[in-house]
Amino acid sequence: MLREDLHFLRTEGLNNNRLSIKLIEGKYILQNDNDFSIHSLKDNERGTLPLLFSILKPYEQFPAVSALLTNLIQVHKLNDAEIKQLSWGMGKSAQNLKPMQIQRIIDILGCIHKQVAIEFNYYKVTEGAVENSDENIVYRQVYPFQVRTFDDRYYLVGIQVGREIKAENIQHFPIDRIHRRVDIALDETTEEPIHFDWLKYLEKTNFSNHYTHCIGMYREFGKEVKPITVYRWFTGWAASQVQAVPIHPSQQIVQKSGGDIRIQLHVYNTPDLQNVFRKFGEFSWE
After folding, report:
1. β-pairing, 178-184 with 118-123?
2. DSSP conformation class of 87
3. For 157, which DSSP code?
4. E strands of the chain, at which residues?
5. CA distances from residue 29 to 1, 32, 127, 158 in whole angstroms, order as listed
6. What pLDDT, in 10s, does the model give residues 138-167?
């Protein structure tokens, strides 16, 4: 009965709070820590482990993710069947990144954590496909704000060193266009890293709302540049997809006709928005 009670307290707990009870020197000790243990998971919780692994697995080359996966497998002793169980499937993700791109992201994230500017050589996006020639490479020093993803591409978001810290000066750099590596930027006079206050800069640029009305990465600035109301018709499989997976949080269905739907969006009119519509081809129109 004692074993059953202990099992109940460890797995079910009191008021749905599982208790950490350990046997130490022959005594059962109630500890305040709430240790995570794979083996204390309920069946419905344990059944979602493949989801956890499918999310983490593509990113296993990032050190923190690798350490977490190692902990789950070795410390919590997951068996091979649970690790390989494919009851959840993920689409394109970090598995498309080359080792050099992964290293660039690791370096950028490390510099954001340290709050230091970075420097790199960069192929201009406007110059088209990357060629063997280095004539289109430019040098950049950037305060890194964030790494973002859109349409299976990874971007560095930040402001170039020397520019005023305001929303209009925020830029994004496709990480695949960075030439070779990312380094810590040094002050020309002191030769010390260029530090910045990450939280202060984000607050100053209202970064938390920077992409609120964006689809993708691009947005424009100016006196008259504001989000607009966009209407669009969809039919067939496109209507089904857009209804199930909205293009943007502002999306509303404003009209239905048979299987066709007309949606309303409140977004910036950018190249990314038009590219999204083009992907639906003849199944979408204004």
Report:
1. antiparallel
2. S
3. E
4. 20-24, 27-31, 118-123, 137-150, 153-160, 171-174, 178-184, 228-234, 252-257, 260-267, 284-285
5. 18, 10, 66, 50
6. 999 999 999 999 888 899 999 999 999 999
H or E stretch covering 44: helix 43-46
For the cut 70, the answer to whether the pLDDT of residue 82 exceeds it is no
Among candidate residues 198, 196, 148, 194, the one with its CA nearest the CA of residue 172: 148
Residue 196's Cβ-count burial label (10 Å; 0-12, 13-18, 19+) is middle
Neighbours of 23 (CB within 10 A): 9
With 90 as the cut, is the pLDDT of residue 253 above it?
Answer: yes
Q: Which residue has the tokens 């502002």?
A: 250
Q: Name the DSSP letter for residue 286.
A: -
Locate 160 and state its tokens. 């170039």
What are the tens digits of pLDDT across the range 83-134?
A: 666 666 667 667 678 889 999 999 999 999 999 999 999 988 776 666 666 6
CA neighbours closer than 13 Å in the CB half-sphere of residue 167: 15
Q: How far apart are CA 133 and CA 127, in angstroms?
A: 12
Tokens of 278: 């083009």
Of the listed ranges 52-61, 155-164, 194-203, the least confidently predicted one is: 52-61
Two structure tokens written together for 228: 């607009």
Which residue from 248, 253, 275 is spatially nearest to 263, judged by alpha carbons? 253
Instruction: Tell me which of 76-80, 236-240, 263-267 is least confident.
Output: 76-80
- If you write DSSP's letter for every residue of 219-280 in order, what string do you get? ---STT---EEEEEEE-HHHHHHHHHS-SSTT-EEEEEETTEEEEEEEE---HHHHHHHHTT
